[in-house]
């Protein structure tokens, strides 16, 4: 019986990356989980305290709240993990988890959600949006972090990317070839409601700047269209200041309430450039199309003029053009739903098992 360890960047909230870890655990229920920091109150119901081992950073005061500010310590924290007793290590990483050190008799398979964007392609963007002190230290520290990121990537036996978009960046920044395995989407609980759509669009997202929710709000304002904005985050007050009476904010709501909105909406508007993007697939699983920015992972999860439509630029007028083009289309709910079914959790688990089997017996 193989002894398996699952490594994840941090366990402080439940999102798409945590669904991947959850699926790994379904394949290997006896695996141990290692992570930088763990918030039992927020995620204990999904990942029990008994299963999770943390790094020394967990002992820092308020570690689960300030962990993102401790980036300089993260490479050391993961390299300090002793994984010598394991036959198989599977890491789930968009930061430093993939940098664990494994011995020659341990196979390390790393599922990469993204190379560190703040160290590579979005470095200048993050730096511009940072304060003077943070920007100064970024200039000094990021060079060393890039070197570590590249070096640690060379220790991985098999690299899996969550999209072709991410695979290209892995090849550019790490000079590594990889396989693409699309992440699991929780589509079993999602389906069309069998009714006609209602007269509103939906945005479902964390309220952070790169999601560009502002574009959807401004476009719907100009077109006098109803928009329901689901979620919360640091941009809450700013986004609400842009809204008029046609824009409704729900805040954080239950999965069932989200499902209800997705089933009833005319379409989802998705303005972000994502590495993959699970939420558009959740809308499609409900039989609803997506009006999306035509870059990044959306190009792999949405079929143009079949399950949605693309707009070209992250600009208000481009979003408006996309909405107007969409409103002239007649799309098939059944085809949209069937397309989403290709990204199921069971499909993901079978692909991971195949990769592991092939990797262990080479």
Automatic annotation (TrEMBL):
InterPro entries: Glyco_trans_1, Glyco_trans_4-like_N, Glycosyltransferase_grp1
Alphabetic keyword roster: Transferase
Species of provenance: Cetobacterium somerae ATCC BAA-474
Residues annotated as domain Glycosyltransferase subfamily 4-like N-terminal: 14-189
The keyword Transferase is annotated on this UniProt entry: yes
Protein name: Glycosyltransferase, group 1 family protein
Keyword Transferase (UniProt): yes
GO molecular function: glycosyltransferase activity
Domain Glycosyl transferase family: 195-335
SUPFAM superfamilies: UDP-Glycosyltransferase/glycogen phosphorylase (SSF53756)
